[in-house]
Amino acid sequence: MLRRLPEVPSIYECLVCGYAYEPAAGDAKRGIGEGTPFEELPEGWRCPVCNSRKSKFRDIGVPQTPSGFAENLGYGFGVNSLTPGQKNLLIFGSLALAFLIFLSFYAVD
Ligand SMILES: [Zn+2]
Predict the structure, then answer these.
(1) 29 Cα to the center of ligand 1, angstroms
(2) CA of residue 70 to ligand 1 center, whole Å
(3) By the number of CB atoms within 10 A of the CB, which of 29, 70, 88, 104 ranks highest?
(4) Is 33 exposed, middle or buried (0-12, 13-18, 19+ CB in 10 A)?
(5) Residue 24 above 50 pLDDT?
(6) Distance CA 93, CA 90 (A)
(7) How remote is the CA of residue 39 from the centroid of ligand 1, in Å?
(8) How large is the C-alpha radius of gyration of the chain?
(9) d(CA 73, CA 95)
(10) In whole angstroms, what is the distance from residue 48 CA to residue 27 CA?
(11) What is the Å distance from ligand 1's center to 24 Cα?
């Protein structure tokens, strides 16, 4: 069996007005806490902008990290499916490795 990756809740977009529900942000106006996936919103929840029902929303995929820098580093290496935490680990791991290589220039005489 494949290892199950940590789930990143999808952003859902309102087909009526274009409002995007971001699970990381929640919906403070309606008492929806940060990190609430769209699927777990109460059935009575409606679009904060145009009052459309949940059925008017569609899944537009997982959020991108706010840092374009991290995105660029990950580009083309198949790590776009990683969580931000995993990306950071990868990035800082790479930096540490680069640092060690840099040090090795001084180690060899
Ligand atoms: Zn709407």
Answers:
(1) 14
(2) 31
(3) 70
(4) exposed
(5) yes
(6) 5
(7) 17
(8) 20
(9) 11
(10) 8
(11) 18
Distance (angstroms) between ligand 1 centre and the Cα of 30 equals 14
Q: Say how far apart CA 49 and CA 61 lie, in whole Å.
A: 20
> What is the whole-number distance in angstroms between the Cα of residue 65 and the centre of ligand 1?
24
Q: How far is the CA of 59 from the centre of ligand 1 (A)?
A: 14
Ligand 1 centroid to residue 31 C-alpha, Å: 18
Q: Apex CA 82: angle with CA 81 and CA 85, to 5°?
A: 155
d(CA 31, CA 23): 13
Mean pLDDT of 25-53: 95
Please tell me the distance between residue 82's alpha carbon and the centre of ligand 1 in angstroms.
Answer: 30
> Is residue 30 within 8 Å of residue 48, measured between CB atoms?
yes
Q: Which one has a higher pLDDT value, 82 or 47?
A: 47
DSSP codes, 4-18: PPPP-PPPEEETTT-
Sign of CA dihedral 42, 44, 48, 54: positive
